[in-house]
Amino acid sequence: MRYIFLTTIFSVVFAYEKDMTFSVQAGKMECFYQKVTVNEAIDVEYQVIDATHGELDISFQMSDPVGRVIVADYKKPENGHRHKSLLEGDYRFCFDNSFSTFSEKTVFFDLMIENDDTSEKDYEDDKEMELGNAAETYMMRVRDISESVSKLKDNVSTARRLQELLSAHEARDRNLAEDMCSRVMSWSLGQIMLMMVVGVTQVYFLKSLFEDSRGFKNLVPGFMSQ
């Protein structure tokens, strides 16, 4: 089993997002660890976009820092989960392909961690109370701008994530189409070869039939002359 530790990088808006595409060998398990604090929202989405053989499915588990399994999926092509952390520590995300004997799976994995920190808002409220009514208009405008920026950030993040998921869907559909095209080509070549073999066999038997018929005609006059 290979373990990959992901470092926590929070932006100014207290959000972390990571997406990746990786392969899980047949009979193996891939695990990722991410540090999460209390009351953070863990948003996970995954999708199997390719497989060397068989179905596009994989098993998934998400565990908390004490090892308790929070989410468990068995042999699913895609799924998404959202969980609010109750403990601080390293959360584990595992993709299990141990049920496959020969099929290697390619998985798209998207992880987002959000923290709605209200300390900045509380600070602004306290500052407004200190400045008094004279600064009320100013603080209202600042709050409106802050809300607009926050909504814009959320919309951009949602659009980016949807684009990544659509790209994963496109990759999966392309792999399925290429696999289907390969199967059709192989089947067509097999049919052509079979038709050629049948045609050559029919010509051979027809030629043999005429040769046997000619020999029989030559044999009958010779027998009658005797």
Structure description:
This protein has 226 residues and is α+β, with helices and mostly antiparallel strands. It is built from two helices and nine strands. The chain has a five-stranded mixed β-sheet, with no helix packed on it. It has a four-stranded antiparallel β-sheet with strand order 2-9-4-7, with helices on one face. A hairpin with a 5-residue loop joins strand 5 (58-63) and strand 6. The radius of gyration is 34 Å and the shape is elongated.
Write the layout of secondary structure elements.
Elements (H helix, E strand, L loop, with lengths): L1 E5 L8 E10 L4 E8 L4 E11 L6 E6 L5 E8 L1 E7 L4 E8 L8 E10 L4 H13 L4 H90 L1
Parallel strand pairs: 1-3
Antiparallel strand pairs: 2-9, 3-8, 4-7, 4-9, 5-6, 5-8
Give the distance, in angstroms, between the N- and C-terminal Cα atoms: 91 Å
Average per-residue pLDDT, rounded, comes to: 77
- Main sheet properties: 5 strands, mixed
Q: Can you count the beta strands?
A: 9
Portion in helices: 40-55%
Put simply, the count of helices is 2
Global structural class: alpha+beta
Radius of gyration: 34 Å
Report the order of strands and helices. Answer: EEEEEEEEEHH
